[in-house]
Amino acid sequence: MTETLQGTSAWIRRFQPSPDAPHRLVCFPHAGGAATFWFPMAQALAPQVDVLAVQYPGRQDRRSEPCIEDIETLAAHAAEEVLAWSDRPVTLFGHSMGAMVAFETARRLEELGRPPAGLVVSGMRAPSRARGGPGRAGTAETAEELVAGILRLQGTDAAVLDDPELVRMILPTIRSDYKAAESYRWRPGPPLRTPIAVLTGTEDPHVDTEQAAAWREHTAGPFSLTVFTGGHFFLNEHAEDVRKVVTDHIARSFQANSV
């Protein structure tokens, strides 16, 4: 991290600074997503929670930088950044590909002796069940097939995908992120000590309830599973309830760390 805690670095966005909040939430975007996806979360939780969002290379203001096509490399960078903000308890929250980046970041923080207070993951099967990320966007797929897959997940405004210039700009990033998600392989190791809360959708085409519940194998600490109606981006239609799960998880983790 190249700037003070009052600002941000290339990797971190802080949309609603809450310097007096007792807890931080670091959010990790999905494949093809950017830090701005988490702006509503930051807006809703301020000033009680200081929300940070990770900005991966290759998108928005980092568009000129090459994408990173490896989950573990993304996590290594993220862990270094999170350490700079860990002057107070930190919970990690990742959706879809971001769930894997958050999980691997938590592993690194535990190895460094700076475990996060909690981990929230959504829209992703457990690491031990990982067989590639959503979309299965191999490099052989045409742009039309890739756009159709994105539309099925309902995470991107259809109007954006109707604009050929916007599609031309975002598809390379999406392909790179999908490559990172599809190539991820879990390294067996001890379970986290960090409590894990899992969120999943009943109609998610890439994660069933058993695969979501298998996250239980990855923590020796408290575990919870919340099932919402909806598909892969159920968290958009259940935003308020998702925030409650997150804040309840933070509160329990904060209480446990205060004992």
UniProtKB/TrEMBL annotation:
GO molecular function, a single term: hydrolase activity
Signal peptide coordinates: none
Keywords for the protein's UniProt record, in alphabetical order: Hydrolase
Domain of life, source organism: Bacteria
Transmembrane segments: none
UniProt keyword Cytoplasm present: no
Domain Thioesterase TesA-like: from-to ranges: 26-250
InterPro entries reported in the protein's UniProt record: AB_hydrolase_fold, TEII, TesA-like, Thioesterase
SMART domains to which the protein is assigned, alphabetical: PKS_TE
UniProt xrefs under Pfam families: Thioesterase
Family under the similarity heading: Belongs to the thioesterase family.
Name by which UniProt lists this protein: Alpha/beta fold hydrolase
Organism this protein belongs to: Streptomyces flavotricini
